Amino acid sequence: MNKVTQLARAAKGVVAARRFVLLGTLFLAACAGGQGGLGKPAQTETARVEAYLRTAQLKNVPFVQTWPNGATGGGGLTYRPGYLHLVYTAPHGMDLEASGSHAVFKDAQAGSETHMGLSHNPLGLLLGNPIQLSGAVQVTDVQKTPGVLQISMARRDNPSQGLVTLLFQDSGRALTLHDITVVDERRHKVLIQLQAQ
């Protein structure tokens, strides 16, 4: 074996070791992010968000959505426990209706209808009835600043399937949902910003 081959193999070994250490670090960070790893204040805020999602009754709230390519659209959002309905008026008529573990997307312009399962889609995290931010759902992060509460969640058994982050305005007494960010398994991000409620 010549010197060049020996150096190439040694370099590959170093790269593989670095990848292993990086993956190990990411794995440990993901495990630490579960609800069991959250401190008491974060657990309290998680319980507030869970209570909000179990009782929310949003009806035709105006929203603006930004797709992964930067394009925007909007319409009206309806949400109650176990049910989400987005009616788009821009860029053209579209409709997404989701309940439990299924969703139907209709595109009036294309004349198409698509049926989707939500068991592997991060959007499904918001459709439990009653919703539980424990067990199958893993709260990965809770951030609180004056007047704002943000919480992120993923599927405990497969967090790589995607992440949902909810941003609330927080008066101290009540929460008002402001943003929903969904990041799918390919790291494509969709942002839904709710307007005045």
TrEMBL record:
Residues 1-32 form the signal peptide. This is Outer membrane lipoprotein carrier protein LolA. It comes from the Bacteria. InterPro entries: LolA/LolB/LppX (IPR029046). PROSITE patterns: PROKAR_LIPOPROTEIN. Keywords: Lipoprotein, Signal.
